[in-house]
Amino acid sequence: MKKILVTGGLGFIGSHTVVELQNEGFEVVIIDDLSNSSLKVIDGITAITGKAPIFEKLDMKDQRALIDFFQRHDDISGVIHFAASKAVGESVQKPLHYYENNLNTLVYILKAVLGLQTSNIIFSSSCTVYGQADKMPITESAPIKPAESPYGNTKQIGEEIIKDVCKVENELKAIALRYFNPIGAHTSAKIGELPIGVPQNLVPFITQTAAGLRESLSVFGDDYPTPDGTCIRDYIHVVDLAKAHVVALKRLIANKNSSNFETFNIGTGVGSSVLEVIQSFERVSNQSLNYQFAPKREGDVISAYADTHKANSDLGWKAESTLDDAMKSAWDWEKKIRNL
Fold first, then answer.
1. What residue ranges do the domains of the chain occupy?
2. What is the mean pLDDT of residues 309-324?
């Protein structure tokens, strides 16, 4: 039973990935600083899988603490690195926080991984690396445009760091999963997205508005060059996304990767506008959502959805859930945590 480290493993995507890893028989160790997560997530993971993951509270900006962790866990077979700040809008307001938190920790984790017997890492990347792409859908060979936000820039730089290290460290095997917009929750409603403070992402803001926590939802921009004037994104169910990490990890462990560093788009291949997401929510919840249009946000691209052929063919992975599936699971989760 191989031991896998999941950094940021109590976060939204991390926790769902831990569930899928444990369901596949991996032993999971989580490190998380709890800055945007809760220890209660462990209870949900345990309830779903029947097994509690190993957990250590650790701030990865503390390199000494990270070195100490790996001295105690030198039998790790792979790392899935989620731990990072991840809100586009917030990154525009707090660039130094994003560069420190997202890049310093990546350097420290790579140094640690190179000291292991097997140096396998999955990097949590993002479609933001493409900036405003010229063509849709976006393929992995699309030009890497100047980032639209500090967050996107940290993902671009992060990939470059890993690529440069892979060129000189032959034992390092890495996959960057460029995922689009993860939404939803586990169908058990035992884990889901639980942002601390005001949500920075669309779907939790929708569900919190419907639950009465927010007065109304702001739709940022109504005059984009899209069919309904709102931004278009590729919304992928978080469980589908979690399964992609497990498939990618198995690829590394089996040494089936075609090069030391590979990138894959992880999305549905379908673009949905903000208004279409709202309509999906209203459809699955049987209620009307209070929303209003607001000025555009700095850092938002017009449209981004994935060409998933490479992930489908090389990884043998494909998204299975629909937008309605994801929105229903997100609403079921919100109702559960608010006792609605």
1. 3-183+236-266, 202-233+269-305+318-337
2. 97
**Catalytic machinery residues:** 151
Q: What is the pTM of this model?
A: 0.95
- 151-185, pLDDT tens digit by residue? 999 999 999 999 999 999 999 999 999 999 999 99
Statement: 3-183+236-266 belongs to CATH 3.30.70.1290: no
| The three-state (H, E, C) secondary structure of the chain, written as one string | CCEEEEECCCCHHHHHHHHHHHHCCCEEEEEECCCCCCCHHHHHHHHHHCCCCEEEECCCCCHHHHHHHHHHCCCEEEEEECCCCCCHHHHHHCHHHHHHHHHHHHHHHHHHHCCCCCEEEEEEEEHHHHCCCCCCCECCCCCCCCCCCHHHHHHHHHHHHHHHHHHHCCCEEEEEEEECEEECCCCCCCCCCCCCCCCCCHHHHHHHHHCCCCCCEEEECCCCCCCCCCCEECEEEHHHHHHHHHHHHHHHHCCCCCCCEEEEEECCCCCEEHHHHHHHHHHHHCCCCCEEEECCCCCCCCEECECCHHHHHHHCCCCCCCHHHHHHHHHHHHHHHCCC
Domain at 202-233+269-305+318-337, CATH homologous superfamily: UDP-galactose 4-epimerase, domain 1 (3.90.25.10)
Look-up: residue for tokens 């993902």?
A: 155
* Domain 202-233+269-305+318-337 in the same topology as domain 3-183+236-266: no
